[in-house]
Request: fold
Amino acid sequence: MSNSSKLIAVVKRDCPTCVLVLPVLHDIERRGHSLEVHVEDDPSFAAGLSTVHDASDLGVSYRLDVHAVPTVIRLEEGREAARAVGWNRDEWRALTGIADLGADLPAFRPGCGSRTQEPGMRSRLKVRFGNTGLAARRVSLPESADAAEACFDRGWTDGLPVVPPTEERVLDMLDGTTRSPQDVVGLVPPNNVPCTVEKVAINAVMAGCKPEYMPVVLTAIEAALAPECGLHAILATTNAVAPVVMVNGPIARAVGMNSKGNVFGQGNRANAAIGRALQLVVRNVGGGRPGEIDRAVFGNPGKYTFCFAEDEEDDDWESFAASRGFAPAASTVTVFPGDGVTPIVDHMSRTPEDLCRSYVGCLRAVYNAGQVVSVSAFLVVGREHFIVFRDAGWSKQRVWDHLMENTTIPVRDIVSGRAGAFGLSPEEQADPDRPIRKFARGNFNIIRAGGHAGKYSAIISSIGSNDALVPVTREIRP
Amino acid sequence: MTEQILLDPTAEIAPVARPRIARPASLAGLRFGLLDINKMRGDEFLDRIDELLAARGHTVKRYKKARFSVIAPSELKQEIRAECDVVIEGLAD
Reply:
């Protein structure tokens, strides 16, 4: 080693390999090398060496990108020239130029993880010592403030507590996507504000998401921002609708979403947090708040969160995503407006025809038994009802056709105003017996979800028309 | 003191400082509450405000805290919130 060389060792007491090489470090110093020792946990561990630093703030380890200890680095003219990680006798001898170094030690011992590798440490160190690249405005609170209360005070919540969006948590959340934090996902109504991936991550933290949900959240927002989805209308209408998020494909199982018992209820983190993240983005980024742009007369509890996975366990019926042309291996998000869940109870019917009769009665009554415009429905067929159809050989398409044919309403029963029945042509209005379809083609869909015991199905009703407020499906990409 | 840093989840089109509750555009028809926090001579100040408001035809209700150095109990705050649109209190002597 030349005179301009210097050795830096990063060690910790809580590492048997560091304990093993401690005599080697003493030996290096005895032989006149310039050695600087940084101890990640307890500096007294290296007592007796001439230059020992308390490195417990991990700044040195972070800047030197130390992943394991011991790490020994040789600097030449202040620049890194060589590095050895763990104990490898040949490497240490080459690095120090001491031919008989560690003669009484084994040839090789792996090191231990540096404290920089402890859970959550990477983002903490990035905030403390690095450049986070985060662009959002910083809001500083005194140490004594309750961060959860501060979020309420600033109007950032939906009425329930949120996870305070610290820089560390947001950095962790951004690990869940390969997209750049400053990528713009779209313009969020009502204020049509460009929403970056970073803003999505902040709101996802607040909603309680895990980083692995980010691809689903981002895709849900993209789908919701598609013009035909009509997010502004969903938000601003006096109707009760919320944006409903339905997930198909392997990612639903991968992140632990619920498609079965209590599918629309509480208790599943992924379902709850993904739907909530979308709503918080609308509130915080878009500026959509109740009493302001949000003019709902009733609203519905789904406006906190309304997100679930379709049950794809039985392949007798194709999934909603498959019916839209997506491959079984694809993961997708579909966003559509929905008011809430109306159960259909039929414990008695044992044939498809009888079951459909029950469905027809409920479907015709959606919104108003005399309404045939601006009404749509997702029929959610529960498993025990599905078995009736499956065992009788009824495809989903056959059920759909049957229900579309049988949910017509005669013109005489359609609610009319002074100008006649809204949305009907003069010819239609002239014939009181003429059957009018309750739902436009794209406004009636059938999906599978729910628990396995009990003869139930359900309707998620909604506003909708053929060209606006239609379900929008997007494929999830990492 | 170590501060806590949060990242702003909004579109950042409003100032970071929390805005005050919007001031009423007009006082016409509003219900006034006068809160005596039990600070020395606060009652004199509030009595005079009471006179002036009454002379203008406003409805005024009086409230009192037991001690100025403790925060108002929830019951009192709820009572004021339910019964008043505007609150005036005397803070210093």
